[in-house]
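User: Teach me something about this protein's shape.
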Amino acid sequence: MEQKKAIWRMPLIVLVLVGLIALGALVLIMVIPKAKTAVSGDLRVEYTRDRDEYEYNTHLFPIKVTTAYGVDSAVMYYGGAKGFEQKPLKPFADNSEWYAATLKFPEKGIAIYYYFVIRDLAGNEVTLPANAKPEFTSARDYFKIRSEGQVSRVGLYFHVLLMLIAILLFIHVLYDALYILNGGSRAQRIYRTTLYAQICFFITGFPLGWMIEKQVLGNYWEGIPFGWDITDSKTLFIFLYWMIPLILYWSKKIGEKGFARWAVGGVIFTVAMFMIPHSV
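Assistant: First, the predicted structure itself:
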């Protein structure tokens, strides 16, 4: 008698916990600020890029300068494609290693590109970031900070809540997909779970996302096809990917196992998109 194949039955709670821990670790890695460092001889400069600032607020830009010879000049250049203005960095106190400049932020939605040039009395000079130049080249060569408007707390809470629900449902989809590929059958369940996850993701990514982006940056959408904003664009890519298996299964172009394969690929793709840092 042919032995019946054992069906994979990992408890869902285990997969959910593993998924949440992994996703949480990735988020922490992305959001923990990382210091940028540049060295020239005995001159060492460190700067940790700060978060965006509310419109019309005054923002502090502190850097740490270490040198045995004393600082000759410390300048912050700020602006963008239309040119840069300069502002001297002043020490916090006599003989302090910390220097800072302040800027009053413009109306929401405006991005400021900036870099630092530090020279010590021995002639060592550091430009941070290293590729920054007085003639604007690429946004990647500069630090960037944006002026933001106030966001509705209720809208933001619903945005985060629906995103978490969507993530949990996608983890559930992965569980059902692995069960199906191991020989089980959950066609209607995996389809419904994917549909509910997609609905939650659509609401949080588009109507709620548009509302929050309008409040914060003054625009409804800055991603493809109207711009190159990475956060908007990856939201669109994730939504479009999951529409493919939903439509194919609904139109009977793929079966249960075909849907499961799309689902496994979709979870991997979604996690990869979440690993890309939000717009800064």
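Now, about its shape. Residues 35-148 form a domain with the Immunoglobulin-like fold (CATH 2.60.40.10). The chain has a mean pLDDT of 87. If you'd like, I can walk through any region in more detail.
User: That's plenty for now, thanks!
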